[in-house]
Amino acid sequence: MSSALxxxxxxxxxxxxxxxxxxxxxxxxxxxxxxxxxxxxRTQAALAARxxxxxxxxxxxxxxxxDLNRAAETAxxxxxxxxxxxxxxxxxxxxxxxxxxxxxxxxxxxxxPDQFADWTAGRPVRGRGGEEPAEVAERAVAxxxxxxxxxxxxxxxxxxxxxxxxxxxxxxxxDHRRVFAPLGxxxxxxxxxQGNRWRLIRHNSSVLQLPGAGADGAxxxxxxxxxxxxxxxxxxxxxxxxxxxxxxxxxx
Length: 252
Prior knowledge:
alpha/beta
């Protein structure tokens, strides 16, 4: 049984997942290991930061990040634009995955077939070590409860931790864990406290670089917002669905 949800000092949360790493691209579980952003991940962070910054009140926004490098580097792209300090909190680290960390999906499926079958079916995974989902949710909520008061908090974290945090805030239990598709790299979700509960305002939004004509007629690239639909190979796996081929940390 989860403890009572604490009152948070911010009424609006932007949960922003870090940009892509090489391990994301190759389907390797990161957990609490610390590979850096790859070139695409740094580009994703720069584009998303420009979009997010335009919609945030500079003097009333707090930015807090997991202390793992891939999240902190993503967050720094935003704090550099806003001119606000970056808070780091280890309680926002990724879901610890024990013996799976550093392995590819195929390696996990070969070495731990029963665990992998439970994971792809959305069942609890036993015996791999690491953390239980409820532990991840509670430490992440505790980190938010310790934030300074602000109108908005941008929380830069990881796919698994963001999912557990949303579930805890929205009161979603384990039986409905995969109602929401996982956040893509550098995508974000927004929640607001309305009435007496948290509500999901938007989910899995991201910025793409789309072509557009400049004033001189030349084709340029400019950021454009889209709500990311889950492509066929990136849907959250279920009993009747194949797991995504890449980005192992997205679905936990």
